[in-house]
Amino acid sequence: MNARTDAGESAPLLHATPGFERDENGNCPMREVLDRIGDTWSLLVIINLQERPVRFNALRRAIEGISQRMLTVTLRSLERDGLVSRTVRPTTPPEVEYALTELGRSIAVPISALGVWAAQNRDRLRAAREAFDASA
98 near 84, Cβ under 8 Å? Predict the structure, then answer.
């Protein structure tokens, strides 16, 4: 089951891929992942942790506009899902460092693919948006 893209190449029908198959509870894997990384803050945390572990305050400074509370909530959620690990060093005050887990590092591949698609299609999206707004 494939659909044709504008370029004429074959693309999978998304609803027919394993990412959209519901489990015994009716949950879709894609929905669960998008619930986690689909918000701006989670994605930015993952991007900022990709190169190396980062301390909390350095991470907060690196992510423009995020509050201390929102960073804490985001990091806890990512840690709960096994994407981020938290290390506390017994210093005064305690030094807390966050890093991507192996699972967290593995998500870079699909995020990168989405980034490539975005770069290739940004102008088309903008043109479509402008045409839509002009016709309204």
Answer: yes
